[in-house]
Amino acid sequence: MLSWRSLLNLLAPRQRSGAPFPDSELDDEPQPEYERYIIPRQVVLLRPKQPYARWVEQCTRRSRAELRKHPEYAQLQDTGKPRMPTLAEMRADCTAYLIELHDEEDLTALEQVERDYVFFFKRELELWEGTDETHWPPKLTLALFRQWFDIECFDMVLDTAKV
Q1: What domain count does the chain have?
Q2: Is residue 128 classed exposed, middle or buried when 0-12, 13-18 and 19+ CB atoms within 10 A define those classes?
Q3: What range does the domain containing 137 cover?
Q4: Are 37 and 139 in contact, with CB atoms under 8 Å apart?
Q5: Fewer CB within 10 A of the end CB, N or C, for the chain?
Q6: At what angle do helices 117-129 and 50-68 cross, to 10 degrees?
Q7: Is residue 125 part of a domain?
Q8: pLDDT digits (tens, 9 = 90+) for 39-86
Q9: Strand runs (DSSP E) across the chain, as ranges?
Q10: The pLDDT value given to residue 18
Q11: Plot region of 44 (φ>0 → left; ψ -120 to 50 → alpha; else → beta)
């Protein structure tokens, strides 16, 4: 089976036959134009670490305490207590960002994220605390960002939808 890299001629194919997909039942169909599916972006995943998960738990506790101050809270309560996501669940369901390719700047995706870490840090904090910065860490530093998130970068994005 051919990989997407070989289909895009990024790697030399193992074996070329006359058919676009060897050993396939699609021999009569024309070869797809894969170039149209390429998006000129990179994907960055920010996977939370334990310090971020602890901060999220504090936000959730604070939100519940604020809700209890309102008389309507008794009516809103359900019988089951909402469960906090585990760190494993947060890491599995993390945020993916599409970032521009900056070939002229000769920066890797990781270098771009670290250069613009404040933007990414604020987006992740807003997911749980909104734009209320009073409960955010007092100083958003690159060192803190690295402590709170693992950064995974991918250099190829293919859109499978026909435009």
Answers
A1: 1
A2: middle
A3: 50-78+85-158
A4: no
A5: C
A6: 40
A7: yes
A8: 888 999 999 999 999 998 888 777 666 655 655 555 555 545 556 788
A9: 38-39, 41-48, 95-100, 149-154, 157-158
A10: 45
A11: beta
Residue 127 lies in a domain: yes
Residue with tokens 């809270």: 73
Query: Does residue 93 sit in helix, strand or coil?
Result: coil
Query: What is residue 2's predicted lDDT score, i.e. its pLDDT?
Result: 36
CA distances from 32 to 15, 28, 42 (A): 18, 12, 22
38 within some domain:
no
- Taking CA atoms, 121 is separated from 5, 54, 78, 129, in Å, by 32, 15, 33, 12
Confirm if 113 and 120 have CB atoms less than 8 A apart.
Answer: yes
- Please, what sign has the CA dihedral across residues 87, 90, 92, 95? negative
Q: Assess contact for 153 and 43: CB atoms under 8 A.
A: yes
pLDDT of residue 75: 52
Helix (H, G, I), strand (E, B) or coil at 46: strand
pLDDT exceeds 80 at position 36: no
CA–CA dist 132, 119 (Å, integer): 15
